[in-house]
Amino acid sequence: MRVVLLALLALSINGVAAQDKPIYKYKDKDGVVSFSDMQPIDRHFELIKVDCYACKVSTHVDWHKTKLIQDKYHSQILTASIRFEVDPALVKAIIHAESHFKKDAVSRVGAQGLMQLMPATAQELGVKNPFDAKDNINGGVKHLAKLLKKYNGNTRLASAAYNAGEGAVKKYGGIPPYKETKVYVERVQILHKRYKSAS
Fold it and tell me: Is the pTM of this model over 0.90?
């Protein structure tokens, strides 16, 4: 199904996401799934809160104590983890940090689904529907496996590249000095350790 993202740029004000602005998901007359920040008229719609968990540099969440989400999508995560030889605890940590296990999550820049795949990345990974949990997880874990292989199993570098891109990691010879990425890497490390201990 063709996915059209509308008005996502309107979610940024002076480069800062308007994270409380509602997004409406609906199908047009041709059955194409669309997103808009304007409420559709005369058609069924679903209200989606656009959030970017990974983007929040400041938060009141204590990542050492916040509740872990163990059961959601466990079988899909385990299957993909075995297939691509990635620690399922790391996959859960990435999903927790990226989308808080919300399969319909859409970031301010258009990243989609549980593992917050950008449309172009999802297409390269063979993901047909980024809002389908199994499809998204398979694509995200495949991407994560590639990064782990590239960085010789270094989860800090792999998560930094997952967040900021491989080009940024190469440019700075390690974790890029972006506040968002530095905070993201630490969150993933904390969550990974906790999910691993809990498994």
Answer: no
Which pLDDT does position 18 carry in this prediction?
A: 38
- 42-59 burial by CB neighbour count: b if 16+ within 10 A, else e? eeebeeeebbbbbbbeee
Can 98 be counted among the known catalytic residues?
Answer: yes
Tokens linked to 11: 């979610």
- Catalytic annotation, pick one of 46, 98, 166, 186: 98
Q: pLDDT by residue (tens digit) across 5-22?
A: 433 433 332 233 334 455
Of 64, 79, 197, residue with least CA distance to 138: 79
Q: Sign (positive/negative) of CA torsion 85, 90, 94, 96?
A: positive
Q: Are strands 3-5 and 33-36 parallel, antiparallel or unpaired?
A: parallel
Helix (H) or strand (E) holding 145: helix 133-150
Cα–Cα distances in angstroms (integers) from residue 156 to residues 80, 110, 148, 184, in the given order = 21, 24, 9, 10
Between CA 93 and CA 90 the distance in angstroms is 5
For 81, phi and psi rounded to 5 degrees?
-65, -40
> CA 199, CA 150: separation in Å to the nearest integer?
26
Residue in 107, 93, 55 with CA at minimum distance from that of residue 187:
93
